[in-house]
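Example 3.
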Amino acid sequence: MTKRHLEPILWLLFSGGGVVAAVFLPILVVLFGLAIPLGLVQPDYNHLHAVVSHWLTRLVLLGLVVLMLFHWAHRFRYTLHDGLQLRSEVPIAVLCYGGALLGSLATLVIVLTL
Amino acid sequence: MSAPITYRQPVSRLWWLRKRTYFLFVLRELSSIFVAWFAVFLMIMVVAIGRSEASYQNFLNWAASPVVIVINVVALAFLILHTVTWFVLTPQAMVVRGPGSRRALATKEVNVAGRWVPAATAVRVGGRLPAAAVIASQYAGLLVVSAFIAWLVLR
């Protein structure tokens, strides 16, 4: 029964995460995953620190990361289930949503203590 | 949950290699791994920035290592696939109505004490935006967000 009530919420988190991943991630990967580590652009540390410490940035980061983690959990659950034909539904769901929940809590702690 | 016990046609674990569309579907589903990867990557970076300049430098050294760069190049390819496919799916998953829409009265069956009776309800009709307009507006949003983030980080 609980599963039936949770399903729409999980689907909502999945689609919310899909939207923010589609809109925010390409530029974030280009900047922080490639351009900055490769030294193509070198933003000043103090500037980055100021941006990341701002309460609005922390709030946005929390929202983005939580949604993206649940997006992963929901989609990966079905990838294992349909793609790899793994039929152990409960352990897969616990692993995926449990992982997303743990990651969300860790993110909450990080943005609160930054 | 009590599933009925019925015969289920066995499906090969490699069913998705049979057709190009199946393969693309699985690639699209796999993009979620990179969504999670980059969420974790971002938080590692945020923790490093929050600690000190030295730990940010350590993070940069790690992020510049060949393995991490290769992972992020692959991640970028999968995330572009995610963005493109997600934008295409949006107008199929939801109806977006433009200024041409209006409210209309309709009836809907509701259950009152076990009996289904008609009740008045309002729905929006007309003005549905064509799929191309919905997709274009999402790309416009992507551009605005990307430009803002680049400006915020690099100014």
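Chain B has a mean pLDDT of 92. The longest helix of chain B spans residues 20-51.
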